[in-house]
Specification:
By secondary structure, the protein is α/β, with parallel strands linked by helices. The chain has four domains: about 10-155 and about 255-295, no CATH class; about 155-245; about 310-530, no CATH class; about 535-540 and about 560-675, no CATH class. Helices cover about 60% and strands about 5% of the residues. The protein contains 29 helices and eleven strands. It has helices at about 15-20, 40-50, 80-100, 110-115, 140-150, 155-195, 205-240, 250-265, 270-285, 295-310, 315-325, 330-350, 355-365, 370-375, 390-400, 405-425, 440-450, 455-465, 465-485, 490-510, 510-530, 535-540, 545-555, 555-560, 605-610, 625-630, 635-640, 645-655, 660-675; strands at about 10, 15, 25, 55-65, 70-75, 120, 130, 135, 285-295, 570-575, 620. The strands form three sheets. Strands 1, 2, 3, 4, 5, 8 and 9 form a seven-stranded mixed beta sheet that branches. It has a two-stranded antiparallel ribbon with strand order 6-7. A two-stranded antiparallel ribbon has the order 10-11. A hairpin with an 8-residue loop joins strand 6 and strand 7 (about 130). The protein is flat.
Length: about 675
């Protein structure tokens, strides 16, 4: 097949932002990703402008839309940069206008250009309605929020009030710091005077009282400073969470408003000279290479070439582009498809899940995943990220041979997959999931011990089987995964192979064949396992391993606990004998309690470290209790333990002390319970 020529015009040299912004009107098409720049990106941009050096700011790839009166472009690549620049210039405009109105800034041609909106809008005539230089996509309400910022005539009161509050707090801290220094100097003088007085002087009591008062005053000042700094920290945190302008619902909304607030707060303190210098550096020393085409097909070729040459475009961006390429002429249907895809992105983002990882697990969970892999030249292996796009291309091509709405069909399937995937991969984020929801209990164990390996298998199972059968499968999968993950010589590739075979059995075999594949995997692990009684009891376990083991062996107690006690996601592994006892508690957690141990060959520190990480020294508590107990003596800890609805923790609370003998005994008990799970 003859390769199609890509018709792209590239400017001979980079163009400064001044020329770029005045050179046309820009539209972000709907197949582009939403605004995702965050504070790290904003900070990098500001620093780049402030250093005053000429800076290559990246590329701008445009599709020329024929327009009789002015240049109009669709932004194919560079939308994040353009959006950020527009928000930054709007922030500058409001700051400059505010400064001029208060007489803090003198008028200049360049500053007035900014105030007059020349870089943000285009005017046909003096009295004509302005045309925005940049229009965002409508998805995620981005266009509405962007318009709201661009139409602002002054800095919002929310930002002003926060700035005033912050400045007030800083002023109070500075004043108190001065008071501390002065009082400390006075205290030193009094102490020096005290040293010169005779032992039987009548003035000693009086000066001691002064010294005491001064010390109390200093302590009081320090407490006030700490409280003020805490208030400032909370204030800054509220700004970072983007709650000052709007209760944003989407990531895009938060990022757009967050960028605006960040720029206003960081630039507002600049004086006239620095502000003008920053403005000039931004427009004259930030450069972009402009690439342009008039051919729609060149756009799709460009995306594919970017991906092929290693430019960091997310797989999801390419897939979105491919979906758009296959869409028909119905604007309404197209918007619905793209909106559905954006909903997937949004829901995954809310649960801190990666879209590309989801797409990979989704395609491997499909009943025809093995056939797709074979078509790509992959034998007896799951599809990976290197061939993920090719796999989706095959599906899209096949769907569009069957129906004109092939893209819609694929996105509908992805929406369904995403609903299952979020529950499996991020069960702790779903506040409606209780401990008594047993399947989610196992999801959470897997999340702690092997978060990624079983996902595609469990996704396939959740789609194929009813709740009862899926629970049985999940239970077995969890046991196999935990057993494998705690082996000293564990190999994650072997675990991948186990779940790959299980997935093959799920797609092509019976329910019984899936169960059998896990039993064979368990038998194989047992044959080569290094987990005997002694090894299990004396091994140094990590927090995640200990949490998974405890949750497995005491599952029946935890699941039967009252619904309103807590969510599983809040459980954490607690060292009964603390990992690092502090000075206050070292006297309690002393080593003479050790019984029947030869201490001659080892130091006390070595002996302590051996026992503190043994499985018998771990219990599971709710997160708040874990941090609250910390390094406290056992007598204090057991008062918390006895309030738990779990029998195995209540038994620990009944003990008068916690020694190394107790740890050894409990480690052996847990081993017996763990071994019973495979029967």
């Amino acid at each position: 097949m003859k390769k199609r020529k890509v018709d792209i015009k590239i400017d001979n040299q980079p163009l400064a932002l001044d020329r770029i912004l005045k050179g046309g009107v820009y539209i972000i098409p709907k197949y582009q990703r939403n605004y995702r720049w965050t504070e790290d990106n904003w900070e990098e941009l500001i620093q780049s402008v402030e250093n005053g050096h000429e800076n290559f700011f990246g590329t701008l790839f445009l599709m020329n839309i024929k327009n009789r009166n002015y240049y109009k472009y669709e932004v194919i690549d560079g939308q994040q940069r353009l959006t950020t620049i527009n928000i930054l210039i709007k922030s500058l405009e409001l700051i400059i206008e505010d400064g001029m109105s208060k007489g803090l800034l003198k008028k200049s041609n360049r500053l007035e250009d900014c105030v007059q909106d020349l870089y943000l809008c285009r005017y046909e005539t003096r009295n004509a309605k302005p045309i925005p230089r940049l229009t965002l996509q409508e998805l995620e309400n981005a266009q509405q929020e962007f318009k709201e910022i661009m139409s602002m005539e002054s800095i919002p009161d929310s930002i002003k009030s926060l700035e005033l509050k912050k400045n007030e707090i800083e002023s109070q801290i500075n004043q108190l710091s001065i008071e501390v220094k002065l009082t400390t100097t006075n205290l030193k003088e009094k102490k020096d005077k005290r040293k010169t007085l005779p032992k039987k002087s009548n003035s000693i009591d009086s000066i001691d009282k002064e010294i005491s008062n001064l010390q109390s005053k200093i302590n009081s000042f320090k407490i006030k400073v700490k409280d003020l700094r805490d208030s400032k920290r909370r204030l800054i945190q509220s700004v970072k969470s983007n709650k000052t302008l709007i209760k944003a619902k989407s990531i895009t909304q938060k990022n757009i408003y967050g960028a605006f607030e960040y720029f206003v707060k960081n630039l507002k303190s600049k004086n006239e000279k620095d502000l003008l210098q920053f403005y000039n550096n931004l427009l004259d020393k930030q450069f972009l290479i402009r690439m342009e085409t008039e051919d729609q097909n060149s756009v799709y070729e460009y995306f594919k070439s970017l991906n092929a040459t290693g430019v960091q475009l997310a797989i999801s961006d390419i897939l979105k582009n491919n979906l758009f390429q296959y869409l028909g002429k119905s604007k309404q249907n197209n918007e619905k498809v793209i909106a559905s895809f954006e909903t997937i992105i949004e829901n995954l983002g809310k649960n801190s899940l990666n879209l590309d990882d989801f797409l990979l697990n989704s395609i491997n969970s499909r009943a025809n995943s093995l056939e797709i892999a074979t078509s790509l030249g992959i034998k007896e292996k799951p599809i990976n990220k290197d061939n993920l796009l090719r796999a989706f291309d095959l599906i899209l091509s096949d769907y569009h041979k069957q129906t004109k709405e092939g893209s819609k069909k694929l996105v509908s399937e992805l929406v369904c997959d995403a609903n299952h995937y979020i529950k499996i991969a991020a069960p702790g984020k779903n506040n409606n999931l209780k401990l008594t929801d047993e399947v989610f209990y196992f999801y959470n164990i897997l999340r702690h011990i092997v978060p990624s390996k079983p996902l595609s298998f469990l996704l396939a199972s959740s789609k194929k089987y009813n709740t009862k059968k899926h629970l049985e499968i999940t239970k077995l999968a969890t046991y196999v995964a935990v057993r494998h993950a705690i082996m000293p010589s564990r190999d994650m590739k072997t675990l991948e192979g186990i779940f790959f075979k299980a997935r093959k059995a799920l797609h092509s075999g019976t329910f019984a064949s899936i169960i059998d594949s896990f039993k064979k995997a368990t038998a194989y692990d047992l044959k080569k396992s290094e987990i005997n009684k002694d090894r299990f009891a004396t091994w140094n376990w990590s927090n995640s391993q200990a949490l998974a083991i405890n949750c497995l062996v005491y599952r029946s107690e935890i699941i039967k606990a009252p619904k309103n006690t807590n969510y599983y996601s809040e459980l954490s592994a607690e060292h009964i004998m603390p990992q690092n006892p502090n000075k206050e508690t070292k006297k309690y957690w002393h080593l003479p309690k050790i019984l029947n141990i030869n201490t001659k060959a080892k130091s006390n520190k070595e002996i302590y470290s051996e026992f503190v990480f043994q499985i018998g020294n771990y219990i599971i508590l709710w997160g708040g209790d874990n941090s609250r107990l910390g390094n406290k003596p056992f007598t204090s800890k057991r008062n918390i333990y006895k309030n738990y609805p779990y029998k195995h923790i209540k038994r620990i609370a009944e003990k008068s002390d916690w020694t190394q003998t107790d740890i050894v005994t409990r480690s052996n008990q847990i081993y017996k319970l763990f071994e019973l799970l495979r029967k």
